[in-house]
Design brief:
Layout lengths: L1 E7 L8 E8 L2 E5 L4 E6 L4 E4 L6 E5 L2 E6 L11 H15 L2 H5 L6 E2 L9 E2 L4 H6 L10 H27 L3 E2 L1
Parallel strand pairs: 5-10
Antiparallel strand pairs: 1-2, 1-7, 2-3, 3-4, 5-6, 6-7, 8-9
Length: 173
């Protein structure tokens, strides 16, 4: 499973970095377009899901990593290469019975920044490759509802990625 999430060097910041989270049996990789934050055995990782936000705190041998399905407002978008990597992995997962049973074959998550969210289903692959949509609506009720929707999506994505990590051997905290 691969998911597009955001790495936060620290919480309560206006910047985050798009990362591809790769979960495979016994192994986890979290990498931005130019830096690998973790690449090693999943058994050496402890994962904690934030109940209020759905963000994940990973404790690795190298230290803590904070990742979330939604990035900070001023964060960069995913690169076309990152999007293509995630889309390609999702196409392989659709054909994998074991992944499909875990519901990993039916999801494609490429996070966005708040009020710039891009979550795709299998039918939206062409849109995913073309790039994220920008749906910034400020100052009205629709923006508020969008924010609620984003928070719900972040929690759901966090639960799915946490469950996948635990299934791959990470320890739940």
């Amino acid at each position: 499973m691969k998911a597009g999430m955001y790495y936060f060097a620290r919480w309560m910041t206006s910047k985050s970095t798009p990362v591809v989270v790769t979960v495979s049996p016994g192994h986890l990789t979290i990498a931005s377009s130019d830096t690998v934050m973790y690449d090693g055995p999943s058994q050496q990782v402890q994962v904690k899901l934030g109940k209020a936000t759905g963000a994940l705190t990973l404790t690795t041998p190298a230290g803590k990593l904070l990742i979330a399905a939604m990035g900070a407002t001023n964060s960069p978008a995913f690169t076309p290469a990152q999007i293509q990597e995630i889309v390609n992995a999702q196409q392989v997962a659709i054909k994998d019975l074991q992944a499909s049973q875990l519901e990993l074959g039916r999801i494609l998550w490429i996070g966005g920044t708040y009020t710039d969210q891009t979550a795709f289903g299998p039918g939206d692959i062409a849109d995913a490759i073309a790039g994220p949509s920008i749906g910034s609506i400020a100052g009205d009720a629709r923006a508020m509802m969008q924010g609620f929707s984003e928070a719900k999506d972040q929690k759901q994505a966090g639960v799915i990625v946490r469950d996948a990590m635990v299934a791959a051997g990470a320890q739940s905290a």
